[in-house]
Each structure stands twice: as structure tokens, then as C-alpha cells.
TrEMBL record:
It comes from the Bacteria. Pfam families: TsaD. Belongs to the KAE1 / TsaD family. TsaB subfamily. One of its GO terms (molecular function) is transferase activity. This is tRNA threonylcarbamoyladenosine biosynthesis protein TsaB. The keyword Transferase applies. The keyword Membrane does not apply. It comes from Buchnera aphidicola. The gene is tsaB. InterPro entries: ATPase_NBD, Gcp-like_dom, T6A_TsaB. GO terms for cellular component: cytosol. One of its GO terms (biological process) is tRNA threonylcarbamoyladenosine modification.
Amino acid sequence: MIKQNILSIDSSLQNNLVAMLYNNKLYYNVHTCKHHEKNLLTMIQNLLTDQKARIQDFQIISFTTGPGSFTGIRLSASIAQGLSILNNIHLIGISTLEVLAEQIWRLYKIKKIIICNIANKKQVYWVKYTKNIKNIWNGKEVLLHINQAVQKIKNLKNTWYITGSGKIHFQNLYNPFLKYIETNQSYAKDLIKLTILAKKKKNFFLLNDIQLNYLHNPKY
């Protein structure tokens, strides 16, 4: 069996997540932290040490590209890029919103999901994802004014589930086709799975390819 050791890093929202698929087993650590830079590298080192692994043992490094915290995303991207360059390891970027969609699929087997996260006081990051027969999420991530998002909710004509911090703007709206659902902090499996799918499609990043999305919400 060909080795497929993967190291994945996420610090796009309130938490630091370090996950690794090592010798076909999943290991991860999640830490709630407002100061991402203080413990992300330590988390990586501890996870490697616990399994007696070296960074050179990995074939893929992935990280979340946002939308999310400016500091958190820049930090995880910088660490992932640095480790990739120094050790000649393939680099993959995964959308934070797609990770949330994948978690919803794993937990509830829902194939149609709206992810809506607050960007700032007037805008939200928005995507309507559908999962195809090849397990690929199709959807376009856009930045919308809240009023535009509200109108899209009003216009729904069939059942959609919605999650994300932005759903707070729609809770006083009534549309029988809209269902609310929650995600949680345990999305290591989902980040690893999306990394594996991206690897199969050879969606590797070059340094100039990376586009990061930042939230403008002071909460983060």
C-alpha cells in the first residue's frame, strides 16, 4: 500500500486544529485559543512527537484558506508553506466553508447545505453547496450584503439546510424550505477527507496560487 501520510492545519476561526493521517490512523488535537500563534507550532510538534513521526514522513500538508481570522489564516498558511518548501512536500489548500459542509454530510448525510458566515457588520460569506455522485461539493463562495442574503433565503423554493455564524440574520424569517443545523469543533476527519480528495485530483498549490479569505468580524 502506498503511504498517504497527511498533516492538516486549521486556525481560521476560534480554534487551532492540527490533524494527521499517519500510517492509516487519524490523530488530532483541537485547542480553543484567541492567540493562535502561541500554540500552533507546539501542537504540531507534540502531535508528531506523540506518534514518533517526523515531518519528512508526510507526503501532503494541507491548511484551510478561510474565510476566517486574518491572523489565524496567515499563520497556518505560513507554517504550511514553510514546511512544504523546506521538506519538498505537496501543499493543498481547503476552503473553511467546504470543511463545514463535509462535516454536515458526515453527521447528517445532507447533500444540500448553505454555509453563511459573518464577514463584517454588513456582509456575509455565502455558498450553496450540493454534493455530486463523485463526492465533490459544487458551489460558488461569494461575499454578499446581508440584504442580498436575506432575499436569497426568501426565494428558496425547495428544502435547504443552513449553518454558520451568519444564520443569525435569518432566524426571524419564515420560509418552510429553510432548516437550521449546527456544526461542531470535531472536523479533523472532514479536513483530512477533503485533502485526500484534492490529492486524487492533484489539486496541489504553488505559492502564487494561494488565495486567502479573511473575515472582517472584530470577534475574531
